[in-house]
Write a structure and sequence with these properties.
The protein has 508 residues and is an all-alpha fold. It has helices at residues 5-8, 11-27, 32-65, 72-78, 80-90, 99-102, 114-124, 133-143, 145-148, 150-180, 184-194, 197-202, 205-220, 224-253, 274-289, 291-313, 320-337, 350-353, 359-374, 376-381, 383-388, 393-412, 414-417, 438-461, 464-480, 482-495, 497-506.
């Protein structure tokens, strides 16, 4: 058997080759041309976020410099659990697991774990891990260099960065398990709850704070045991992820067993709506039968219920901005997670949909009506807030109609821009999971913040009651006009249908 170029490569050459492939795959993405404009906007937003993180670093430095009972390093180290939890949650916006990148190389004559190892190492040196240096570097300059010296400041930045890399590997481990089963969220929550165990047991935040401040100070002082623990955890996570990433990827790519359908639901009550009713049936059955769509739908429902309960029965989001923002967000979360990916699942069978005239139009109507009906769920769950005096019934109803009107109209525009097929069942090795449509990110950001901005602007000129009456009428007007703006979306889709169909086929 002839020796291939991949077998002749050493691990370093293979690492460089596969890393170059990742960069090239981004340029070959079906969304690359449209994403260039959207990425520019995202980069501008990222610039503002970096400025905000530097501002946080300055504020922390001012607080740390004013303390007399602990060093600045101990102060920052005591806050580490909060930073790690925030880092873990932020990574869900963009970081992918190596298993999602391995599929194109699974049939090549490469050592069993070589690809997985390469992509794990790539994730360790990713520029995303450098984001937290926008906090650690300014903090070190303002609070450590002139007090403890340059080398201690450098050690502080280095070890904080190592901890961030460890957290990225921890995210990779839990993200892989969560992708397989949503119940692993409980395991991830329990893991991060352990960081706050001293606080939970004693009820005293100082015990929690001092546990981490002590370890951080020993680490930056190059205490052998602390350094050994950190390095051992990093190496341990590498081999743990190496094992699980390869195991799950191999299991998913080799899966051939099909499950028999035991029961077929007819949903005959939808027959009265004609072809639109048939497409509503298709949407419901796709969610019920396909693993990927079912998981996304369950995520949306769970997050909606969870956020609604927090808003209803706690005072976490009772300040002026948060009360408005989360009142809006609880109604749009389903659309932000599901409707923004419109046409993605249909990319698997787009050729069949294009056979009959206006099939796509009826499909768009069906999707809109289905997700429009789902926004009644958060309204029902949020009713207790009316009796508690947090919101009025007018506020909730107006927000619901505004979300179903102009906000969902924004999401439906993605039918023209989405060009990547979303796999129905595969998740870990799915090609579509690697690519990101930045226009979808912009649509989600617009949907989340524009209603709050509109409410704030209207409140300047009108009373609260008049403001939400205006929001209510805007929402009703958009829903009533949905046949017209839906026809506009359909016409624009048909003008680019051949380009979109080619991209759907290429990304299956």
């Amino acid at each position: 058997m002839p020796v291939t170029k991949y077998q002749e490569m050493n691990r370093l050459e293979l690492f460089r080759t596969l890393r170059r492939h990742i960069k090239l795959s981004e340029k070959r993405s079906a969304n690359y041309e449209q994403n260039r404009v959207a990425k520019t906007i995202i980069y501008i937003a990222a610039g503002f976020m970096i400025c905000y993180m530097i501002f946080i670093a300055v504020m922390l430095s001012l607080i740390a410099n004013s303390l007399t009972d602990m060093t600045t390093i101990e102060f920052f180290s005591g806050l580490l659990p909060f930073f790690l939890v925030a880092d873990f949650l932020v990574r869900f916006l963009g970081q992918q697991t190596p298993a999602q990148l391995v599929k194109p190389y699974s049939l090549l004559p490469i050592p069993r774990h070589a690809c997985v190892e390469t992509f794990i190492l790539t994730s360790m040196v990713s520029e995303n891990n450098l984001l937290w240096m926008c906090i650690t570097v300014p903090f070190a300059i303002m609070s450590i260099v002139f007090i403890h010296g340059f080398w201690i400041a450098l050690a502080f930045v280095f070890f904080m960065q190592v901890i961030v890399v460890i957290n990225s590997q921890n995210y990779m481990f839990w993200r892989t398990l969560i992708t397989k089963n949503v119940l692993w969220w409980l395991g991830a929550a329990a893991f991060y709850a352990l960081m706050f165990l001293p606080w939970i047991i004693t009820g005293d935040f100082d015990s929690q704070f001092h546990a981490f401040s002590w370890f951080g100070s020993k680490l930056c002082a190059f205490h052998p045991l602390a350094v050994l623990i950190v390095l051992a955890v990093l190496v341990g996570y590498f081999f743990l992820n190496r094992h699980f990433q390869y195991l799950f990827t191999r299991a998913e790519t080799a899966q051939t067993k099909e499950k028999a359908i035991k029961h077929v639901s007819e949903f005959s009550q939808l027959d009265r709506f004609g072809q639109t009713g048939e497409y509503i049936k298709l949407e419901i059955k796709s969610i019920m039968r396909n693993k990927n769509m079912r998981s996304s739908f369950l995520y949306g429902i769970i997050f909606t219920i969870f956020l609604s309960i927090i808003i209803s029965y706690t005072d976490v989001y009772d300040d002026a901005f948060s009360s408005k923002f989360f009142m809006v967000y609880v109604f749009i979360i389903n659309g932000a997670m599901l409707l923004v990916k419109v046409m993605g699942a249909e990319g698997n069978y787009i050729d069949g949909l294009m056979i009959h005239k206006e099939n796509i139009l009826q499909l768009l109507h069906a999707k809109y009506y289905f997700y429009l009906a789902l926004i009644v769920l958060p309204l029902i769950i949020m009713i207790p807030t009316v009796f508690m005096g947090k919101y009025t019934l007018l506020q909730l109803v107006a927000t619901m109609f505004f979300a179903g009107g102009p906000v969902y109209c924004v999401f439906m525009q993605m039918a023209v821009w989405n060009k990547t097929t979303i796999p129905l069942n595969t998740k870990l090795v799915a090609k579509a999971n690697v690519e990101t449509n930045w226009f979808a990110v912009i649509a989600e950001m617009t949907a989340m913040f524009s209603p709050v901005i509109i409410i704030s602007l209207l409140s300047i000129f009108f009373s609260e009651t008049v403001t939400f009456i205006i929001m209510l009428f805007i929402g009703i007007a958009f829903i009533a006009a949905s046949p017209y703006w839906m026809r506009n979306i359909y016409n624009r889709f048909m003008r680019v249908r051949y380009k979109n169909m080619e991209s759907f086929r290429a990304t299956r």
